[in-house]
Amino acid sequence: MSFDIAMTGFVALYVFMLAAFAGWVIIGNVPAILHTPLMSGSNFVHGIVVVGGLFALFNASTHLEQAIGFFAVLLGAGNDAGGYAVTDRMLAMFKRSDAAPAHHGHARVHHLKKG
Question: Residue 65's CB: how many other CB atoms inside 10 A?
């Protein structure tokens, strides 16, 4: 008995619409203060987009399918790189601006002025 399911255009459109609606509902309920950390921390999702684009590109049989696969990989990789850039900028906001050298394990000596 074989359970092969072909991903027809209608089924693919249904899955895409269901995923888009679920994402809209989930992200819509996230408070604004958590939105950037949540989205920058979910860069692995863009890696899945790249893998899907590579799958589409490697299984392409026409020039149109190759172009769609290429743009999927290109846009997914760009989105992934942008997500990591946003994460880096966000983490830089929490670093101290005064770059005083840290003296770990050393006692500080305070010199008193003689007056």
Answer: 13
